[in-house]
Amino acid sequence: MEDKNDLTEYGKGLRGWVIATAVMIGLALALVFFYAPLDANQGFLQKIFYIHVPLAIMSLCGFVFGGILAIGHLRTGDRRWDMRSYVAIHMALIFGIAGLLAGSIWAKASWGHWWVWSDPTLTSFLIVLLLFATYQPLRFSIEDPERQARYASVFAIVGGAFVPLNFIAVRLSQQYVHPRVLTLTGGNLPGSMRLTFFISLIAIVLLYATMWKFEMTAKETRMQLRRVKRQLLGDDSMRPLGRSAAPS
Amino acid sequence: MNAVFAIAPALPLHSAGKYVAGAYIVFAVMLIVYLGIMGVRLMRTQRELAEMKRQLDEAQAAEKQPDRDLEHV
Known about the structure:
The complex is a heterodimer of chains A (about 250) and B (about 70).
Chain A: H1 14-34, H2 49-76, H3 79-111, H4 120-133, H5 135-141, H6 145-172, H7 191-233
Helix pairs in contact in A: 1-7, 2-3, 2-6, 2-7, 3-4, 3-6, 3-7, 4-6, 5-6
Chain B: H1 2-7, H2 16-72
């Protein structure tokens, strides 16, 4: 049944998403701290794995998702696809920074250094993050909204395609400090740890989806408000939007 | 509650605990900052919406006023 209070397309079912996310995060935290056994080598420190890895995976998938949504914009010319792509990349950046910080804390505790430049996994992730950190300045540098959306979409597609290529290159590298615990053949995680990891991953994916929907709802509401304002007060009374990195 | 603590790993807060807490707190803080920013923006939008509603009501009331005056004539 539809909620009549939902004013926007993305607001539909948002409450359900929020509840599902909160439940999954609670379940994941309970499994991490009360169910998953202590790691034989790292002990309690390994608990960072359950937040660091899902955040990094979701961030990379978010960049690819942004690229896929940008294809929709270039194919149709509909600016709503650009908005979806923009929010997907914005969210992926937030998750990426959180994952990077969590990983850095883990590295300090485990390896004695906040950062190890010689590790390809760390450095490649930083390169991807820095690449997408230029997405917003690129948008801001282009004043014309149509051109801004088009150039940003091309950037998002190229950047999104770079992510899996980068991932494969890192996987093929032989010299690394980063442990490899997840592989296509199952990896070396015991069952209880694997279950905890996948529940944590689902929780982070749900959080990403909910935050994406939430931001889309907020943006759509602001656009609707602006449209109503224009209808009611006329174009002359509207303050100019000015240059912005966000789609308008 | 005691049963829950019995199966939970002991929290070694003297060494690894602070790093684990740090990693989770960083994530929680980022989430709270994001929700805070979005909340402030949402409040601003709601304020603007309330202002628009007030202006709309005033405009509708002003439109009805001449009709009522005509009825009296």
